[in-house]
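Reviewers asked in the last cycle whether our approach scales beyond single polypeptides. To address this, we selected a multi-component target totalling 280 residues and predicted its structure end to end. The input consisted of the following lines:
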Amino acid sequence: MTTETLAPFDPLADAIAAVDGWPEAVEPVRALAALPEPEPAASVATRDILIIDYSGDLEKVWATMILASTSAAMGVRTRVFVTFWGLQVFVKDSKRITGENWMQKMMSAMQRPGISHRKLSKMNFFGMGPWMMGRLAKQYGVASPKELLEAAQMLGVEFIPCQMTMDMFGLKPEDMIEGMGEPAGAATVIGLLIENSTPLFI
Amino acid sequence: MAVLEITQQIDARGLSCPMPIVKTAQAVKVLPSGAAIEVLATDAGSVKDMAAWCRTTGHTLVDQTSDGAVYRFVIVLK
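The resulting structure, written as structure tokens, was:
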């Protein structure tokens, strides 16, 4: 009868080895230490920015305008796809009632369109919140969403309206502010995302 | 080192983020490569923002001073 020496019984070590392979202790440490500092002089290879502006809330519109104008200021090609509540922001401030049928008209009556008539998602208090926000912004030299929109347009930000939302809310091209891009759809957004755009959904 | 001739001064004092960057970007659009600009700002965030803007756009931040209230940046355009 032959006897064999039993292998040491260590199921935990076997399980780790089965998943990861045995870790090599030296290499990763050396690789970490050798991580190069980012080179300050080399210019950054930039990707395009695509902001999807879904919300019509004052604070989110503000964020959209700040990021869009800054990204264009940094020389990055910037597009903003405006859809659903976000589309109401780009209706002319002077428009009061938009739409063709009574439901579309009632929707615009309940929430006045235009960038100067945005409501806060919190602490709106029948317009008291946005009014105070506007006062504070002026006091601290913060540009209003409207000023930022004008700056963004001057710096070449493209605002692309969503065709489906325009149809559903009964919005016509003449209802929208000057300088809007051609209406487009979801496939345009996905196309841009898989090509070369960094997405931001606001 | 030769004394830099400032082509244009951009006064962004009293303006909050992101207007110092936005105003600067608007101003440099019409300026030629190699021109030097001076930006004045009171926004404390502009110290980091100007550096980031220069890094992304490729312009060179050659001087940066502050008297405690006003930040002054000198940038040579790419």
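Residues 16 and 43 of chain B are 6 Å apart (CA to CA). We regard this as preliminary and will revisit it once experimental data from Aim 1 are available.
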